[in-house]
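Field log, afternoon session.

UNIT: design team B
ACTIVITY: writing a sequence onto a fixed backbone
BACKBONE:
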């Protein structure tokens, strides 16, 4: 049975928080995104990674900078054009392979709050 999601992004009040370090996405997704002609679109840190369908991943931010696709208003420039082009990693976040991603504790206020509550209950 599929696990019920604990975090619903539609209810989020700090949506751009989780984009502040960019994301790792598949190289083929990156090529498709480039075809959209978004101003300032760029990718960084190409690496081999067998967990990605093409065998390669690229980052959407330079080192610890925010994602290049995050607009001034905190929205995703790719999502604004087409949800279909939005990277799978971003669509799934704060989940990764059906589980909460470890980095979500630092990037997502909702997840952070849930961990805090759990820790309090455990005391
Ligand atoms: S992952 Fe967290 S911070 Fe990002 S949109 Fe979803 S609830 Fe908000
Ligand atoms: S591609 Fe869009 S959703 Fe993904 S990190 Fe960048 S701004 Fe956020």
């Amino acid at each position: 049975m599929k696990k019920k999601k604990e975090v619903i992004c539609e209810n989020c009040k700090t949506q751009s928080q989780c984009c502040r370090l960019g994301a790792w996405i598949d190289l083929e997704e990156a090529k498709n995104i480039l075809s959209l002609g978004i101003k300032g679109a760029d990718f960084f840190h190409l690496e081999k990674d067998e967990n990605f369908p093409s065998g390669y991943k690229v980052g959407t931010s330079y080192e610890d900078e925010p994602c290049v696709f995050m607009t001034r208003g905190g929205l995703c420039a790719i999502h604004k054009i087409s949800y279909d082009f939005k990277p799978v990693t971003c669509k799934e976040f704060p989940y990764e392979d059906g589980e909460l991603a470890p980095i979500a504790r630092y990037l997502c206020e909702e997840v952070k709050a849930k961990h805090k509550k759990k820790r309090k209950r455990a005391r």
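LOG NOTE: The chain is about 30% helix and 15% strand.
NEXT ACTIVITY: expression trials, pending approval
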